[in-house]
Amino acid sequence: MKILLVEDEMKLALAIKKGLEMEGYTVDIINDGQKALTRISLHRADYDLVILDLMLPSLDGREITRQSREMGITLPILILTARAETETKVETLLAGADDYLVKPFSFAELAARIRAILRRPVEALPEILSVGDLELNAAERWVKHNGEDVPLTLKEFGLLEYFMRRPNQVVNREDLLSHLWDFNYIGFSNVVDVHVKNLRRKLDTGHGDVVLETVRGIGYRMVA
Ligand code: CA
């Protein structure tokens, strides 16, 4: 799961990013309203959720929400607001946001709101996935292979979930990079290969029926 965090208080933004990364999310930070709208309009498919501060330089959160919805973008939006007035909240929701959180909030509250939004039926994805003899529970974050627990790192888990949501489809490295690594990541796409290699090793019990094939020059395909 990848989140776009639009917040101009850098200290708060970095603290939220750090906390969300501990929960297994990948987070991009943008600190300007207009830049955020551009990012959302051009890269909507990269994100699962947008967290928007209401008061931002150049374009406020409500306007970003309104314009995004006008463009037909259905990404869930969670608004962060320093204003507690009920009127503001209602207006915000009417502009198309999915939920709001009043500052100051606890990290636990933010995490709970995010989980709730991402689980809503409209945008929700199944939480229990099963491909061949592999089973993954995205909510409880565990993987079983032939009924046995497979301990995975957060990145490996993210990769496996991505593959299991697309069985028998070719997944290219750039898609994996853009969904599972944030845009400040500086490196080569072989970081994906390294993680896939580790994932393969952990899944290879010698008698499994799921194979992560390399598709030369493109990426990977999970074959069941
Ligand atoms: Ca602000």
Task: Describe it.
The relative contact order is 0.11. The longest helix is centred in the C-terminal third of the chain and has 14 residues, at 190-203. The chain is built from eight helices and twelve strands. The chain has helices at residues 10-22, 33-43, 61-70, 86-94, 107-119, 154-164, 173-180, 190-203; strands at 2-6, 26-30, 49-53, 77-81, 99-102, 128-131, 134-137, 142-145, 148-149, 170-172, 211-215, 219-223. With 224 residues, it is α/β, with parallel strands linked by helices. It has two domains: 2-118, Response regulator (Rossmann fold, 3-Layer(aba) Sandwich); 128-223, Winged helix-like DNA-binding domain superfamily/Winged helix DNA-binding domain (Arc Repressor Mutant, subunit A, Orthogonal Bundle). Helix 2 packs parallel to helix 3 and helix 6 (154-164) packs across helix 8. The strands form three sheets. It has a five-stranded parallel sheet, with helices on both faces. Strands 6-7-8-9 form a four-stranded antiparallel sheet, covered by helices on one side. The structure holds calcium ion. Calcium ion binds next to loops.
